Each structure stands twice: as C-alpha cells, then as structure tokens.
Amino acid sequence: MKYGSFDREERIEDRKDFARSVSIIFLEPVLLALVIIAFNAVVIMCLWNWFIVPLGAVQIGYWLALGIALTVKLVTNHEMIMLDIVMNALALGIGGIVQFFI
Questions:
Q1: How is the chain split among helix, strand and coil, in percent rounded to 5?
Q2: Which of 8, 20, 72, 76 has the fewest C-beta atoms lying within 10 Å of its C-beta?
C-alpha cells in the first residue's frame, strides 16, 4: 500500500536513519562532557597526590577526586558550558523529532 510518494519500507528506513542521526546529536555532547569530567577528576587526583600527600594528608583515588570535582562545580558559580551544549543539542533533537512527525 502506498502512502504519498513513499511506500512503507521507505518510510521505515527514513525513520531509522532519522533515529540514528538524532542519537548521534544527543550522544556526542554527552560523551564529550563525560570525558571532560573524567579528565578533570584525574587532574585533581594527580595534583592532590603530588602536592597535598607530602604535607601529611592521605592519598585519594579517582572516585573521591570525582566527588571533589563535582562538589566544587556545584558549590561555585561557574558557567556550565558543556551543559549549555547538551541542552542546545537536546532542544535541536526534540525540535527535529517534532518536525519529523508534523
């Protein structure tokens, strides 16, 4: 059965292609943000173990450094650039989905 100028299989393929492109739009900024957060935690861990441990403090691991990094990020008033990028990508993706079904 024909729907407009596309048959059913073509419409299914178009939706699969659209879903792949939307997942890439959402996935890239989120993965980039996770990599930046992970790198930030590694830097905090290395700096702590290099500067603070010789002063008599205990060594910290990755997860504690990640907790420190996230706590400092939440307490201080830094602009969250990656969050803006993720939110913009989310808005574009939602707009694309709505436009696809209209």
A1: 80, 5, 15
A2: 76
